[in-house]
Structure formats: C-alpha cells, structure tokens
Amino acid sequence: MTDQQAKAALFHSLHVAGEPLVLANAWDAASAAVVAAAGAPAIATTSAGVAWSLGAPDGDALGRDEAIALVARVCAAVDVPVTADIESGFGSDAQEVAETVRAVIAAGAVGVNIEDALRGEANPLRDIAEQSARLAAARAAADAAGVRLFINARVDTYLAGAGGVEETVARAHAYLAAGADGVFVPGVVDPETIAALVAAIPAPLNILVGPGAPAVAELAGLGVARASLGSSIAQAAYALVQRAAEEAYGKGTYEAVSEAADYGLLNGLMRR
Questions:
Q1: What is the pLDDT of residues 154-169, one digit of tens each?
Q2: Is there a contact between 177 and 137 (Cβ–Cβ < 8 Å)?
Q3: Which domains does the chain have, with CATH numbers?
Q4: Spacing of C-alpha 222 from chain mean position
Q5: Global pTM?
C-alpha cells in the first residue's frame, strides 16, 4: 500500500456518524500547515478561499490548472490526508470531471467535494442524471488510479433554495448510487432538519458550520459525521486584513494586529 492509499483509507475511517470529523478549511499551504499543527486529523480546502487567494471569484471561475497546483502545494505542506473542494469539477462534461479527479489524485489528495450547483442558468441545480454521470466518472477515474478517493457529493438544494428534505434525499440517494461516499448539505443548521437528513441518507452526512450552527457536540448527538467551516476562516482572515488596513490608514495605529501569529512559529511550519 502506498502512502497515498494509506491516507485514503485513514480519511475514510474518520467519517463516523456521531463522531464528526471537524474540518477547519484551509486555502493555501500556510493555512493548511497552521490547521494541521493545531491537531487536525485531515485538511480540507475551501474553494472560495482558494479562488480568492489566486485572484478569482468563487463559483467555477478559477482555472483547473491553478486549482490543482494549489492542491499540490497544500498536500506537500502537511502529513495528514487532504481533501480538495473542486467546485463542480472544473469540467463541462463528465469526462472533464474525470480528468480533474485524475489530476487531483496526482497532486496527492485523497478526497474531493463535487457540487451540483449551476451558475448563470435558469435552473440553479444540475439535473440529477447529469450530476450522477459526473460523479460516476469521478468514481471510475479514482478507481482506475488505485486510490480509494472519498467523493463528497455536495447537494445545494438549501443554498439555492431549490428544495427541502425530500429533494435533498432524492439527490443524495442518486449520487450515492453513482459512486459518492458521503453527502454534503450546506445551508442547513436546524437540528430537526439535520436529524431527518441523517435518518434518510445511508452515508456520512457533512454539515457546514459557523456562527449560528449547532456546536460539534450537538451535531454528534444528531448523527453527523463531518462538520466543515467552509470559507468562514478565510473570510475572518481577510476581515482582519481589512480592519488592520483601515486602522493604519485611518487612526494610524496598529491594534488590529496585536494578536498576530508568531513569526517564528509560522516560519517554522514552512517546509522550504
């Protein structure tokens, strides 16, 4: 078994209902190293944070090559398993999604998020059959590469306002049949709804967390297997940049950076 295959097996084992895998999403090598040093058992990237750090808006605007290069840098920066948010798969069809998955595996990752959102279209969600084909292509590409890639199928019903529990569950079942390993439903924080999704979806359920969401202990009691902070940490970091800049250019003071991370600590986490 290769090191990557071992990491893939480990990453799968971290998904246990009632014992949420907490992912403080990173967006570059430095943030990934900081999160890993805090004790994270795995690293997940945030597509929004990655896109912003590379000068692109979130939402399938970043080029595949740029995204994969960033994934490779994150994988090289940490020893724990890495799962990459690849938005819709950086491809217009199923075969292009498969190409993306092959590149992600070559970069060292052992998991991906693939979402069913459509942007700039009348229908906010991709057709179930089409999305299932994209996920099946991703599964086939990973299997051919010999890596047990954890495919986290993101269902954007709640984020897009395009359905409730019934539609979400129907999509989840179709995506699992196509080869997904887990289901990610961002936009849900109501405990009753989360419990209903856990009961109806026969796979690890991933919830997007942040202010207003149930605490990890409550999510554990509901049977959630994965909790992701998504873009919120990157947003908080950029908010600090904003406050520090406004203070420096306004008052001419520097209190916003008074709790900055230690220079030596950060420098010591870098590998080259």
A1: 999 999 999 999 999 9
A2: no
A3: 3-231 (3.20.20.60)
A4: 21
A5: 0.97
